[in-house]
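Propose amino acids for all 249 sites.
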């Protein structure tokens, strides 16, 4: 495996990344909240890219993995800026973007603001607007009061230590909601969703499918797959979706 490299962004953040140079169109993986570029999906996609000779980029957002900063200092706009900084500096031409969970939200922001850099889109349990719809609107008055008074709320997580949700994350998320305004995507879009996902439910995927406009947008439901979407069959489903997008791009 190639040695880890670092990108210094104009915002002063140091982003860790791995890039495999191959044939274009390239593929870029955008991970989820508090995940990093060594997860099973990112590593599976790099192995696939190397086998197929396809250019591939994976990286850590600031406050994630090996990149600089603290997780609790970050927010959606920071991580979206990180993604665009990495794509602008480390790739050329339109890319197929693969966005997992929060990475799905960030990829949709990219489709809205930088469609020139997108050749296609694959989302995995995309979680647009989760700070508002998944957190704030679902919280009781006690949690909302804690956030306002203490600036953060600690949520239990089955993936490790408690998830710290900050006031800045919630407020910044409101400035970057995707589902309140129409969004047209003219490149091929493949949305993947597990029916057993309790973190991002099928209702979210179906709502996003209904919300998006474009000539080639499809949703595939995988029975009994959970939010990780990382068993062998799910990983093969991801690469198949990418190959289909590349063929149609």
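Proposal:
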């Amino acid at each position: 495996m190639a040695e880890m490299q670092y990108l210094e962004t104009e915002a002063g953040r140091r982003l860790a990344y791995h890039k495999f140079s191959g044939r274009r169109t390239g593929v870029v993986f955008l991970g989820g909240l508090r995940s990093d570029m060594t997860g099973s999906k990112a590593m599976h996609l790099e192995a696939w890219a190397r086998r197929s000779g396809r250019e591939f980029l994976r990286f850590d957002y600031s406050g994630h993995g090996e990149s600089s900063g603290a997780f609790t200092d970050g927010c959606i706009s920071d991580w979206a800026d990180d993604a665009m900084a990495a794509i602008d500096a480390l790739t050329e031409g339109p890319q197929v973007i693969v966005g997992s969970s929060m990475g799905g939200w960030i990829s949709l922001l990219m489709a809205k603001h930088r469609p020139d850099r997108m050749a296609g889109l694959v989302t995995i349990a995309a979680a647009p607007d989760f700070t508002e719809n998944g957190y704030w609107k679902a919280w009781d008055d006690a949690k909302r009061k804690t956030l306002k008074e203490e600036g953060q709320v600690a949520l239990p997580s089955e993936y490790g230590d408690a998830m710290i949700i900050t006031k800045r994350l919630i407020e910044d998320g409101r400035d970057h909601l995707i589902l309140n305004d129409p969004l047209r995507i003219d490149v091929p879009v493949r949305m993947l969703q597990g029916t057993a996902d309790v973190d991002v439910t099928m209702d979210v995927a179906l709502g996003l499918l209904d919300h998006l406009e474009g000539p080639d947008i499809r949703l595939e439901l995988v029975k009994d797959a959970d939010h990780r979407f990382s068993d062998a069959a799910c990983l093969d489903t991801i690469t198949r979706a990418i190959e289909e997008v590349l063929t149609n791009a």
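The longest strand covers residues 23-30. Residues 15 and 153 are 26 Å apart (CA to CA).
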